[in-house]
Design goal:
The chain has about 750 residues and is an alpha/beta fold. The protein folds into five domains: about 90 residues, Roll (Ubiquitin-like (UB roll)); about 90 residues, Elongation Factor Tu (Ef-tu), domain 3; about 120 residues, Rossmann fold (3-Layer(aba) Sandwich), CATH 3.40.50.80; about 350 residues, no CATH class; about 45 residues, no CATH class. Helices cover about 40% and strands about 15% of the residues. The chain is built from 24 helices and 19 strands. The protein has a six-stranded antiparallel β-sheet with strand order 11-10-13-8-9-12, covered by helices on one side.
């Protein structure tokens, strides 16, 4: 039976021994967060593996292809993604964030605290007995004063027979554990450690080792270097350390000591946010920018720090030809206190949801009505086609201004009706494109003109002969392109998030083929949702970039990203990249098949017009990406929050775009279907609806004038302290008057909720 009609009862998931009830159609992650379990996550759509855990008992239904982020070895060992797993039976889950290697906790006392930087501290702990660990591994720490706030930290010292260990801790805004050790006098306080855990440690070898660290990710590497000194391992070493400013560098004396006594030791510090420091003579930029210069002769690489940095470094090394088995990584994930309610939501409001009425289902048919209007006007041709395009554009632009906002989120008891609405977009788009190609043909392909004449009495063959061909070309590209960008791409966006539903994925990918963008189904879920609002995401426009440059940049790099993500998946599974198993290559063939159909109907003119129409539709997608995340800033290792997307609750942008305007909630919870997205009126807000905003983006001076003040408002009222530091550098690079000399890091702290009403 189709997935959308399926029903199942609640199941029990025991997560590290704690029982959690998982409701029907709820994922393990949603249930865990709803029960208050501190379960790590970032993207929630199966793109980052932060919620990776081990299934030790029972069975689950997996909603997505885990091979995109898990290795074959991990899959064989029972690892799953909690955000993409629904229990089929009662299940037992082992959460790696709390790995238990030793059978019991080892008690101890904090005997020293040293502030290494303004936001990094080292704790020295004397344990009652030694822990048997390898340098590079980590342990779970629990303070006696905070028994409910266990956190995992890497050892920053090599194993010691006397039981003395060190841990390096970075302050997390609002973090209970890190805030306590920073603000309270913890020397002498009781602490317990459970461990060790992790597979990050030095492998045997004699060739040069490359260590790449970011922030507190230097800690396990320092432990490895200490262990190498003790064991007499004299292999050459290059240590690259990325920090924001010179004040963020630490352990320099210790590193200088290694350089003095180890032949072949090279230290390369890189600062990403200190361009105006006249005393700094070292390198500027991201540490990963310089990997190619330092990787020559490297036998093995060890990467430790934020996931974004690690992923970028891993990609750079693989591009240089380093095999995956020679790259070892430890991704540091910030774990914050969380509250949950709606779909396992994080800090989102609890809302009342009245039962959906028939009108609540019908309102999402606006886009289909626009599609039917487009089909009719394309067939009528000439002046009617011009009128059709004008009606659609005016309705979208001014409908938002006149109709106001829709902030309701009804409870849809029959979601299958909405799913069927989504699926019917494919035959509508196919018919629309066929009608356009028929208008370009010189005959009557499939006898379609005769059929319409016999059925309606209107002679479309004669009307085609009398119409101005230039009008036909222009209105076809614009009108059909708008419908592909709307009826096809927007619908496909929703469907390709349903990675567990083969019918939805099939329909969604074919809809994307009409804009030459089937790779979207790969890169959007496994790339964009993972890296949104960071420099790594090609779909997030940095401050100061105009929309035309963004269209080109995003099209090129999202395609490259989709091809890379799919190739990595196949390599993990030991499958050939250049084969029909490659979903990206199959997507290219799908679009090629549409070009063949265009040729068969309308010859080379049909191929040219279809190509221009598809590229126009694809450009519309990139304009939408541009305005949805323009100038947003996020620390890569922190979870995506509603504040990382621009939102609108305008009526037409909601009804005619399947709630696409509720983008803040969508990115905070990518697994939530469109009808259940909340309006979040306190999220960062677009000034206008989608089509009006798209029009403004096409005039860069007008766009800049509007967005400078809105970005300042975002920096002041939504950004975390760490995001403000990144925003300051983004402002400097923007080239925009009003931002270049604006320093949001000097502003007073935003409200604790991070969300205030938009202007």
């Amino acid at each position: 039976m189709l997935h959308i009609f399926s029903r199942r009862g609640p199941r029990t998931a025991r997560i590290n021994g704690r029982a959690v009830e998982v409701a029907p159609n709820e994922t393990i992650l949603q249930a865990a967060l709803g029960d208050g379990i501190d379960f790590p996550f970032i993207c929630r759509v199966g793109g980052c593996a932060t919620c990776k855990c081990r299934l030790t008992g029972g069975e689950v239904d997996e909603l997505t292809e885990t091979g995109y982020v898990l290795t074959e070895e991990e899959i064989a060992d029972g690892y799953i993604l909690a955000c993409q797993s629904r229990p089929r039976t009662d299940v037992e889950i082992e959460l790696p964030a709390e790995p238990v290697v030793s059978a019991e906790k080892v008690a101890g006392r904090i005997v020293g605290r040293e502030f290494l930087t303004h936001d990094i501290v080292r704790l020295d702990v004397q344990l009652d007995r030694p822990l048997d660990y390898r340098a590079g591994q980590f342990a779970s720490l629990t303070l006696d004063d905070l028994p409910e706030a266990s956190r995992s930290y890497s050892f920053s010292t090599a194993p010691d027979d006397g039981g003395r260990v060190g841990f390096t801790i970075r302050r997390v805004p609002g973090g209970a554990f890190s805030g306590h050790v920073f603000d309270e006098d913890v020397v002498g306080a009781g602490v317990s450690a459970r461990g060790p855990a992790g597979e990050f440690h030095l492998r045997e070898g004699e060739g040069r080792a490359l260590f790449v660290a970011g922030g507190s990710g230097l800690a396990p590497i320092l432990a490895i270097l200490e262990e190498m000194d003790r064991t007499g391992d004299r292999r050459p070493v290059t240590l690259m350390f990325g920090a924001r400013q010179e004040r963020d560098l630490y352990a320099l004396e210790e590193i200088e000591g290694y350089a003095a006594r180890r032949p072949g030791f090279r230290f390369v510090p890189v600062l990403s946010d200190d361009d105006y420091n006249p005393d700094w003579k070292g390198r500027h930029g991201f540490v990963t920018d310089f990997i190619a210069e330092e990787a020559e002769g490297v036998e093995a690489a060890y990467l430790c720090g934020p996931p974004g940095m690690v992923d970028s470094a891993e990609g750079a090394l693989k591009a240089l030809g380093m095999p995956g088995e020679a790259i070892h990584a430890d991704r540091f994930i910030i774990r914050e206190g969380r509250q949950s309610n709606f779909w396992g939501a994080v800090g989102l409001p609890v809302i009342d949801r009245p039962r959906a009425k028939p009108g609540d289902y019908l309102k999402f048919g606006v886009l289909h009505m626009a599609g039917l209007l487009a089909i009719a006007t394309v067939l009528l041709g000439g002046f009617y086609a011009v009128i059709g395009v004008a009606i659609i554009m005016v309705a979208y632009a001014f409908g938002d201004l006149i109709a106001g906002e829709d902030v309701s989120t009804p409870d849809y008891g029959q979601p299958w009706i909405l799913t069927l609405q989504l699926w019917t977009a494919l035959p509508l788009v196919m018919l629309l494109c066929f009608c356009f190609m028929w208008q370009l043909s010189t005959g009557d392909p499939l006898g379609f003109g005769a059929l319409v004449h016999a059925t309606t009495g209107y002679d479309i063959v004669a009307a085609r002969a009398e119409a101005n061909p230039v009008v036909r070309y222009v209105t076809g590209i614009v009108g059909v392109g708008l419908m592909i960008g709307g009826l096809a791409t927007i619908t496909a966006h929703e469907l390709t998030h349903r990675t567990w539903d083969p019918v939805s994925m099939f329909v969604g990918r074919w809809l994307l083929a009409f804009s030459f963008d089937v790779g979207f189904s790969i890169e959007h879920v496994y790339g964009h949702h993972r890296y949104v609002a960071t420099d790594i995401d090609p779909a997030t426009a940095p401050r100061g970039r105009n929309v035309y440059a963004h269209i080109v940049h995003s099209i090129v790099h999202t395609n490259l990203g989709a091809a890379r993500i799919e190739a990595d998946r196949l390599r993990r599974k030991g499958l050939p990249v250049w084969s029909l198993r490659n979903a990206y290559l199959r997507g290219l063939l799908m679009s090629l098949s549409l070009l063949v159909a265009a040729f068969l109907i309308a010859g080379w003119l049909g191929v040219l017009m279809f190509t221009l129409t598809a590229l126009f539709a694809r450009s519309l997608l990139e304009i939408v990406n541009y305005m949805e995340h323009y100038g947003m800033i996020r620390v890569p290792e922190q979870p995506v929050q509603p504040r990382h997307s621009w939102n609108t609750n305008a009526v037409f942008s909601s009804w005619a775009m399947f709630n696409l305007g509720r983008h803040s909630h969508h990115h905070a919870q990518g697994e939530v279907p469109f009808q259940d997205l909340m309006s979040l009126p306190d999220a960062p807000k677009m000034r206008y609806g989608y089509l009006a905003t798209m029009g403004i983006t096409l005039i860069p001076p007008a766009w800049n004038r509007m967005m400078v003040e809105r970005l300042k408002h975002w920096d002041a009222n939504y950004a975390s302290p760490e995001e403000r530091v990144l925003a300051r550098e983004a402002n400097r690079r923007s080239g925009l008057r009003g931002l270049m000399d604006y320093d949001p890091s000097a502003l007073p702290p935003a409200g604790s909720s991070g969300a205030v009403p938009a202007e």
